[in-house]
Amino acid sequence: MEVLELARWQFGITTVYHFLMVPLTIGLSILVAAMQTRWVRTGELRHLKMTKFWGKLLLVNFAMGVVTGIVQEFQFGMSWSAYSRFVGDVFGAPLAMEGLVAFFVESTFLGLWIFGWDRLQKRVHLMCAWAFSLATMASAYFILAANSWMQHPVGVTFENGKPTMNSIWAVLTNNTALAAIPHTLAGAFSVAAAFLVGVAGWHLWRRGEHAEVWRSSLRLGGWVGVAAFAVLAITGDTQGKLMFEQQPMKMASAEALCHTEKPASFSIIAIGDVSGANCEDVKTFNVPALLSFLAHNDFKTEVKGVENLVGEYQAKYGTNYPDDPALGSLAGKPIDYVPNLPVTYWGFRMMIGFGAVSAGIGVLALWLTRRDRVPTARWFPWLVLGGIATPFLGNSAGWIFTEMGRQPFVVVPNPSGVDGVWMFTAQAVSRLTTGEVWTSLIALTTVYAALGVVELYLMRKYVRGGVDAVMPPKKSKDSDKPGEDTLAFAY
């Protein structure tokens, strides 16, 4: 493999790995803050136990997310230096805001929350939980604003061969970002909800202690998961309509729509090899005219296919790469404007499918635990524990589709934006040897694998330990009031 391909594999592996931690942290932080709010308002001990148990798992996951996330920004300069120079004037502001504002607030208030249980006044301590939780969402906002600029460049002029930002407001209010943010947050709540359903469902099935904690956690997760999937569907539709305008090749690839159709049918599933740009041997099961509606809100509009779009891209951005030695073997070669069709087509369906399965498991768990019922079937714990993986897989498939679907661009041209503000991925990579990239790829993958083992060990340890592993033991059997020692520990 050449440097470009190796660098893409490295960034893909580390980024997908890191993003396994991010949505769980975002979603679980809000739910833990909500649990603590409920305890402060009602004084019910089960809500304190829920806060302690799920808060411990949140801390483990957050710590791993920080460690793995540090590498992401280093990679810009390590393997993608040309890209860093091109986007540096734009990315500097949102990434600085993420680091100095959001992450600083996260770290500060998380520390206060961890060490303030028996030191801070109850409502002040609760405020720390909410400050940390909202800061995680702010951090996601700034990162998504930067990523969305790559998908739809706005707020810049083109000077001296690179974009120069002239409006930070335009970057932060990019319509691509405003659509991506609620969709990403809904995905985070879907992950956290499945996590609650899986872990709490397993404990509830075992019929151990603290049944009230597990029932409340499971049902909270079930309802949040259903609501999150509804929001995902609505925001996903909004994103799709924007993509048809801003990145028509990506959406044509997502449907394996090789030829322009009017009206265009939505492909439910394809049989055959979708990797070819003409799709002659592919048989699809379609819903007539639905793709036209998803693209333009009517059932008659034309949707352009891959073959037609290739000609348009060639006319706008050239047929061949520049004859530049920095491009390696691609110098002067024809540009392939068609992304990896199997990845985009099946990635799009995996994203939707896994999200639907996760919501379905949540609905089933709610039904089986209605009216104080306790599931007894032997398949139940396997179902809910396996269901934890489904939104993780859906999130990962969605991001892989989003990033690989914009190839061969690393900065996608804005159809109505400033001329010249776009960049081929082949132009973005650093001038490294294959040996250097192989070394960093192997080293980072090994370190991340080790961190994965540590995370799974700690998660398994605290999950199996249950509430008793995070609550202090009673000091004596002669306490005058129920729960006296536990509440004394809290405040």
Automatic annotation (TrEMBL):
> Can the keyword Nucleotidyltransferase be found in this entry's annotation?
no
Q: Which UniProt keywords apply?
A: Cell membrane, Electron transport, Heme, Iron, Membrane, Metal-binding, Transmembrane, Transmembrane helix, Transport
One Pfam assignment: Cyt_bd_oxida_I
Membrane-topology descriptor: Multi-pass membrane protein
What biological-process GO terms show up in the record? aerobic electron transport chain
Return one GO MF term. heme binding
TM ranges are: 12-33, 53-71, 91-115, 127-150, 185-205, 217-235, 346-368, 380-401, 437-458
Report whether Lyase shows up as a keyword of the record: no
Q: Where is this region: Disordered?
A: 472-491
An example Gene Ontology cellular component term from the record? Answer: cytochrome complex
> What spans are recorded as compositionally biased (Basic and acidic residues)?
475-484
Which superkingdom is the protein from?
Answer: Bacteria
Cited InterPro entries = Cyt-d_ubiquinol_oxidase_su_1
The record's subcellular location field reads: Cell membrane
Q: What is its main location?
A: membrane
Similarity section: Belongs to the cytochrome ubiquinol oxidase subunit 1 family.
This chain belongs to the protein called Cytochrome ubiquinol oxidase subunit I
Organism field:
Amycolatopsis vastitatis
